[in-house]
Amino acid sequence: VMSKYPIVHDQNHDVSIAGPEKRGLLHCALRLPGQPLEVHVICVHLGLLESHRHQQMELLCEMVRGEVPPNAPLVVAGDFNDWRRRADRLLWEGAQLREVFVTAYGVPAKTFPARMPLLALDRIYVRNASAHLPVVLPRKPWSHLSDHAPLAAEIHL
Q1: Is 104 in contact with 123 (CB distance < 8 Å)?
Q2: Number of neighbours of residue 99 by Cβ within 10 angstroms
Q3: Helices 87-95 and 50-67 meet at what angle, rounded to 10?
Q4: Kind of pairing between the strands at 39-45 and 74-79
Q5: Most buried of 28, 98, 101, 140, CB within 10 angstroms?
C-alpha cells in the first residue's frame, strides 16, 4: 500500500491455508485531511485453489467485520485469482463490498496475463465510498513490470 497520506495503523494477516503457498491480507488505516474517519485499505493476494480462496474470502469478511468500523470508508484491492467470479457475491453478503468495474461496466476487468489480458483475476472493492472511471492501465510499461495488468480508479469518499 502506497499513500501520500499518513498510514496510522498497519497489520499483515496471514491467510495461508495449506502447503507452501503463502497468502496474506495487508490492512492499513489512513488519515486523510478533512475526513472525520480513517480510510481503511486492504491489499489482497488470495490462493490459486478455489477452496482456499473461499476460505480466505471468509477470513477477509471476518476481518472487515471485526476491524473496520461499519461507517468507515473501505477499499479492498488486489489479486483475488477469481477467474470463476465467485468473489462478488461472497464479499457483498459477508462485508457489503461492491466491485468497482462491475458497478461501472457490468463485468470485472480482465487483467491476466498483462500482455494480452484474458482473465479477470484482480479486483477493487469499496464500501462507504464510490469509484469514478475505473480503468485497466495501458499495457506498456506495466506489462514489463508484472504478469498482471494494474487497475486504477478514482475513489470518492
Answers
A1: no
A2: 26
A3: 20
A4: parallel
A5: 101
* Pick from 101, 107, 109, 110: nearest CA to 131: 101
**Residue 104 burial by CB count (10 A; 0-12/13-18/19+): exposed, middle or buried?**
middle
Which residues fall within 8 angstroms of residue 18, CB to CB, at 6 or more apart? 52
Looking up cell 496474506 gives 24
pLDDT in tens, 57-116: 999 999 999 999 999 999 999 999 999 999 999 999 999 999 999 999 999 999 999 888
Contacts of 84 by beta carbon, 8 Å cutoff, 6+ apart: 50
Type of residue numbered 39: V
Banded pLDDT at 138 (limits 50, 70, 90): confident
Mean pLDDT within 19-29? 92
